[in-house]
Specification:
The complex is a heterodimer. By secondary structure, chain A is α+β, with helices and mostly antiparallel strands. Chain A contains nine helices and four strands; from the N terminus they run βαβαββααααααα. Classes of the chains: A alpha+beta, B alpha+beta. Chain A: Residues 92-208 form the GST C-terminal domain.
Chain lengths: 215, 227
């Protein structure tokens, strides 16, 4: 099964990391894994474009099936491999609803706020920094209200999708003292086997950045 | 209370995310839900009533009993999951169609974002920060995106939509396509999108929930005319 799967990915990219965590959680280790470099522009190379006309990573194939959207790939893997690995969708209806809510809120945490752009004015930069702070405070509040995972008692697709973004924020210097509940969540989940086994290779031996330390 | 009567939707007219949820409720035979139309123009999406359920002050805002799911795609997936055996099936069974459905559904979010970045550039970006180069880039990105969707719909026909039969991919993407034509997109330049639009515009769930009014249409009815 895993041998029929191919994942092209870049290190440190939350969308790529999500799919890697999902594959581990569903016991699908052994897939064909190809690490590419964003810095070298390999995400726009022929290999990727053959699978993903958008020239983006992750690019994921299962036999003849292509699924490059990380949310789509994670949901598909959970659906198709229901009977193996860890269950990523809670039985409890309230937790399931919360899982869907947090999963899709995860888009606000990453795409709208943190992706840098060369043309931002100072006023825009300030506004975005303010918005990012408010957004992270919202998530801190969510972790105060529930836990230990995003949808409650069990690790779910919400964590598969959102944890990589939280890890990304701490890598960029988010202050654990300002956001203690998120820090506790980060520290709990980072030791989960699926997460540990797929930790970005370029993060292991290098220090992070401190762009977010004052937030 | 019927299942639907324990659901409460706060929505705004012309919002594709709201429309997705309303189409899904119809498809799953959940008509009869409690609902309230709010005005974006009057900033009612930031009212106390919304903020009490949705701290983000956004629409749609949706409750099923005590369960709150304001994220439209999350809510659609939840409804399909919880009401699998009633109404129309919105997630295909075959792995290949299912994967394609998830792929196109999620790409649909990118599609809307690119459309809004161009069509509503002056609404989202304060005057002091607008740049001709950024507007041009947004326009080019939208053209690239539209061409991609034309290619996805190369063989569009009845029951041959984005992932075979009508699915959550169409629930997400049809509102984008309706939006595009409402704001002036040329059917001649985008014939496959036009064909898709014409095939689905009279689908009962879509017809029943057609937006009463598009946002800022008085100012923007031709903003996509030259794309």
């Amino acid at each position: 099964m895993a041998k029929d799967m191919t994942l092209l990915w870049g290190p440190g990219s939350p969308p790529c990391w999500r799919v890697m965590i999902a594959l581990e959680e569903k016991g699908l280790q052994g897939y064909n894994s190809k690490q590419l470099s964003f810095e070298k522009g390999e995400h726009k190379g022929k290999d990727v474009l053959a699978i993903n006309p958008r020239g983006q990573l992750p690019a994921f194939k299962h036999g003849n099936i292509t699924l490059n959207e990380s949310y789509g790939a994670c949901i598909y893997l959970e659906e198709q491999f229901k009977g193996q690995g860890n269950k990523l969708t809670p039985e409890n209806k309230a937790e399931l609803a919360l899982m869907y809510q947090r999963m899709f809120e995860g888009q606000s945490l990453f795409y709208d706020r943190f992706v840098p752009e060369g043309e931002r004015h100072d006023s825009a930069k300030q506004r975005f920094a303010g918005q990012l702070k408010d957004e992270i405070k919202l998530w801190e509040g969510y972790m105060q209200a529930t836990g230990p995972y995003l949808a409650g008692k069990s690790f779910s697709l919400a964590d598969v999708i959102v944890f990589p973004v939280i890890a990304f924020l701490f890598r960029f210097g988010l202050n654990e003292e300002h956001f203690p509940k998120l820090a506790a969540y980060h520290n709990t989940v980072k030791d989960r086997p699926s997460v540990k086994n797929t930790w970005p290779p370029n993060w292991k031996d290098t220090p992070g950045m401190d762009a977010l330390k004052n937030l | 209370l019927t299942m639907a009567q324990s659901m409460y939707l706060l929505w705004g007219s012309g919002s594709p995310p709201c429309w997705r949820l309303m189409i899904t409720l119809e498809e799953k035979k959940l008509q009869g839900y409690q609902q309230k139309l709010l005005s974006f123009e009057k900033m009612e999406h930031k009212s106390k009533e919304v903020l009490e359920i949705n701290p983000r002050g956004q629409l749609p805002t949706f409750k099923h009993g005590e369960n709150i799911i304001n994220e439209s795609v999350g809510a659609c997936l939840y409804l399909e999951n919880q009401f699998k055996s009633q109404g129309n099936k919105l997630i295909p069974d075959s792995p290949a169609e299912q994967a394609l459905m998830y792929q196109r559904m999620m790409e649909g979010l990118s599609f809307l974002e690119k459309m809004e970045s161009f069509a509503f550039y002056d609404f989202f970006i304060p005057e002091g920060e607008r740049l001709d180069s950024a507007l041009k880039r947004n326009k080019d990105n939208l053209v690239t995106e539209l061409k991609l969707w034309e290619s996805y719909l190369e063989n569009v026909a009845a029951d041959r939509y984005l992932a075979g039969g009508f699915s959550l991919a169409d629930v997400v993407v049809f509102p984008n396509v309706a939006f595009a034509f409402a704001y002036g997109l040329s059917p001649e330049r985008y014939p496959k999108l036009a064909k898709y639009y014409n095939l689905l515009k009279d689908r009962p769930s879509i017809k029943a929930t057609w937006p009463p009014k598009w946002f800022l249409i008085e100012l923007k009815s031709e903003c996509l005319k030259d794309i």
